[in-house]
Amino acid sequence: MSKIKDRLSKFQDIIRGSNDHHATQEVTLVAVSKTKPEEDLMEAYETGHRDFGENKIQEMTTKSESLPKDIRWHMIGHTQRNKVKYMAPYVHLIHSVDSPRLLKEINKQAAKNDRVIDCLLQVHIAEESSKYGFDEQELIQLMEDELFKEYQHVQIKGLMGMATFTDDEEQVRKEFKSLKAMFDRVKDRGLLDRRHDFTELSMGMTGDYEIALEEGSTMLRIGSAIFGARD
Ligand SMILES: *Cc1c(COP(=O)(O)O)cnc(C)c1O
Question: If you average pLDDT over residues 46-56, what whole number do you get?
Fold first, then answer.
């Protein structure tokens, strides 16, 4: 078996094991293929894998044009509003919605394409100030906003967060716990009308997926542990 297939099947086993433990909700594996050539994606595709994550719209769009149409494309990177139109026709889930203005643009471009685009709101949980995202107050403000309630072309499926890049496991665990707690509070407040199906918590990458699963992740975004280190 090739390395990519090997590593992918290891993750599929981990996820299957985790799905057995927490029977309430399935965990989705997003294979993060940014910077990797199309052959690498096809290797994963041939095992039956369909969920791929990219962090640049240009690169994702080029790949989506030449690769099979049943791939589910996940946008996981910070997005400029003027580029949303390129992915609006096909993107499966945008994990990285980090401002009200971006959400407004996604709603607009989704309408043009006669679609409802699934979105996660990115929350700033890390210590680094460079990471993008909402805080809890801003999330609540957004959901209470009358303008937001009129957006018929986006569905808010949940939250996404990135922990601090550190070896300190307790720090990472604390941040994931805080994201899960925020997720539960937002859900309990009932600010979203029911069509939003607020169920997904995207957290966990190569370095911290084990902790993320223990803390309630429903979506892992794994790059280097599947495709190898990036340049
Ligand atoms: C690159 C990236 C990942 C995957 O990172 P790995 O450490 O290679 O697993 C996950 N999430 C986001 C937002 C990324 O940009």
Answer: 97
Q: Tally the residues of the chain.
A: 231
Cα torsion angle, 69, 33, 80, 116, sign: positive
Residue 42 located in a structural domain: yes
CATH at residue 203? 3.20.20.10
Q: Give distance in angstroms: CA of 204 to centre of ligand 1.
A: 9
pLDDT at 1 over 70: no
- In angstroms, what CA-CA distances link 15 with 122, 177, 209? 23, 20, 10
26-43: pLDDT as tens digits:
899 999 999 999 999 999
Q: What is the mean pLDDT of residues 71-78?
A: 98
Is residue 81 within 8 Å of 102, Cβ to Cβ?
A: yes
C-alpha of residue 223 to centroid of ligand 1, in Å = 6
Kindly report the pTM of this predicted structure: 0.96
Domain that holds residue 95: 3-226
